[in-house]
Amino acid sequence: MKVYRSIMRSAVRYRETRSASLLCVLLIAVTGVRGLSNVSIDIPLAVAAGTTVNMTCRYDLQSDTLYTVKWYKGSEFFRYVPKELPPIAVFGELGAKVVRNRSDEHRVVLKDVQPNHTGKYRCEVSGDSPSFNTVMVSGYMHVASLPNGRPQLRIEKMRYAVGDTVRGNCTVPSGNPPANVTWTVNGTPVNSSSIKFINEAIGDHQQHTTVAELDLETMQDSFSNGRLQILCHANVFHLYKETAEVSLKEERPRLASVLGTRESSYIGSGTKCTPEYFYITAMTALLLCNLR
Ligand SMILES: *[C@@H]1O[C@H](CO)[C@@H](O)[C@H](O)[C@H]1NC(C)=O
Ligand SMILES: *[C@@H]1O[C@H](CO)[C@@H](O)[C@H](O)[C@H]1NC(C)=O
Ligand SMILES: *[C@@H]1O[C@H](CO)[C@@H](O)[C@H](O)[C@H]1NC(C)=O
Ligand SMILES: *[C@@H]1O[C@H](CO)[C@@H](O)[C@H](O)[C@H]1NC(C)=O
Ligand SMILES: *[C@@H]1O[C@H](CO)[C@@H](O)[C@H](O)[C@H]1NC(C)=O
Ligand SMILES: *[C@@H]1O[C@H](CO)[C@@H](O)[C@H](O)[C@H]1NC(C)=O
Ligand SMILES: *[C@@H]1O[C@H](CO)[C@@H](O)[C@H](O)[C@H]1NC(C)=O
């Protein structure tokens, strides 16, 4: 019995110490040791000039109360202080773009953004006393002035024999930043050594026209069913995706088609009655006549 009672007593003592440490954990939580956390910024990577942008700053206050949220692009342009009335204050040229009634402690809405608003945006969140925890996060946003129109594709000529060089230009209307241009031939990306870029800056708004030059030597396997499908793809982030396309023909010397190509062997079987068939039979008739 004695032994049993002493076990009971130690079990009780154990439970007491455990609840004491639990209380300690609770106290730490209440007094704000676990405060402001999980701060993150959510802004678009790229937007078109003239549009409205939502920028979000997420955070978990936990036991803290909010003191301020400040937004910077270089200098401060937005501040939210819940203790003040009104809680929103804006500063400078960017501050004038803030849509106040759609902005709050988590969000800033900017209207009519311009290319010079491209850059690094920072959000700074501070907890109130006694902790005054402050966390700063940042993100980068491009404001693009999109090309006004589709790319234009110019190719030297329309027919090519194997071994010829296809020369052409793809011109994308001016924008900022300049568009990325890539080429595909019959669906296959063109080796970059065949491409050259010329960026022409025009005007004082740093607008750039992109001219991509193609200089591609054709090979036996370049053609697909006697055709070269040339595509110029122009992109500005996910905001502008346009293509220009041209279909070039393979130029085959007529003699080659008479002498031992597939077409002439089809003729033998008599299953095909194409204009070429009549042409070739006429030629054969002429040859036979001359031989006689
Ligand atoms: C932070 O956020 C993530 C995902 O939203 C969540 O899983 C995690 O529990 C959060 N952490 C804290 C400390 O709140
Ligand atoms: C901005 O947020 C508002 C409200 O949440 C939404 O209706 C709108 O579509 C958003 N705009 C953009 C560009 O994401
Ligand atoms: C915000 O204010 C503008 C006028 O300044 C008003 O036209 C618009 O409806 C308001 N939007 C909201 C969401 O309250
Ligand atoms: C940005 O460009 C606009 C014109 O598009 C101009 O009014 C504004 O002052 C410029 N802002 C800065 C910070 O350069
Ligand atoms: C492509 O552009 C360059 C430079 O503007 C020019 O010299 C060349 O003739 C152009 N080629 C074609 C096929 O238009
Ligand atoms: C492109 O072509 C050049 C020469 O024809 C070759 O050296 C290079 O490896 C090629 N690059 C690719 C990515 O195929
Ligand atoms: C062009 O392509 C590069 C590499 O993929 C990318 O980093 C850049 O953002 C693109 N620029 C535009 C304007 O789309």
UniProtKB/TrEMBL annotation:
InterPro entries: Ig-like_dom, Ig-like_dom_sf, Ig-like_fold, Ig_sub
Segments passing through the bilayer: none
Ranges where the Ig-like domain occurs: 50-138, 151-247
Pfam families: Ig_2
Gene3D superfamilies given in the database record: Immunoglobulins
Signal peptide (from-to): none
Classification via CDD domains: Ig (cd00096)
Source superkingdom: Eukaryota
PANTHER family: BEAT PROTEIN, BEAT VI
Record protein name field: Ig-like domain-containing protein
